[in-house]
């Protein structure tokens, strides 16, 4: 379901992005609107699936996972569901995207060391249906995942 968002929705999302634990009343004060308006907007954004949760942002490097890689996987097409299910069991797999091009899946992985990464890749190769992989090490993340600039562009709040 697609919904229209306006500048107030964008401002509310910006506040939540900077402080996801902010109480409704505090958000209302920051935005200069009524508490009930914030509650109604939040309920609408959550019901439409625009806001899907409030998880903490975890710095994986700070807890010992300094090696980050992107793994392109070429696979037997008829085994994709089974391969995705197997990847779901790897705690080091952060996300998986089905893609076009040579790789059928693009997998983001975090590991403690390069040796750990090698072992993870070897386990991925052992999954039935995996034909070939290509590994790219992430040296830095100059732009981490973000959605707010796109929301601000959509609503003209840039």
Characterization of the model:
- α1 runs antiparallel to α6 (about 150-155).
- The two termini are about 25 Å apart.
- The chain has a 4-stranded antiparallel β-sheet with strand order 2-3-1-4, covered by helices on one side.
- Helix content is about 40%, strand content about 20%.
- By secondary structure, it is an alpha+beta fold.
Key words describing this protein structure:
4 strands, 158 residues, 4-stranded antiparallel beta sheet, alpha+beta
First and last CA, distance = 25 Å
Q: How are strands sequenced across the largest beta sheet?
A: 2-3-1-4
Largest sheet: 4 strands, antiparallel
Radius of gyration: 20 Å
Overall pLDDT level: 94
Strand content: 15-25%
Q: What ranges have pLDDT less than 50 throughout 5 or more consecutive residues?
A: none
Shape: elongated
Binned, the helix content reads: 25-40%
How many strand elements?
4
Short description:
It is built from six helices and four strands; from the N terminus they run H-H-H-E-H-E-E-H-E-H. It has 158 residues and is an alpha+beta fold.
Helix and strand arrangement:
Layout: H1 7-18, H2 24-31, H3 35-47, E1 67-75, H4 80-88, E2 93-98, E3 105-111, H5 114-125, E4 130-138, H6 148-155
Antiparallel strand pairs: 1-3, 1-4, 2-3
Helix pairs in contact: 1-6, 2-3
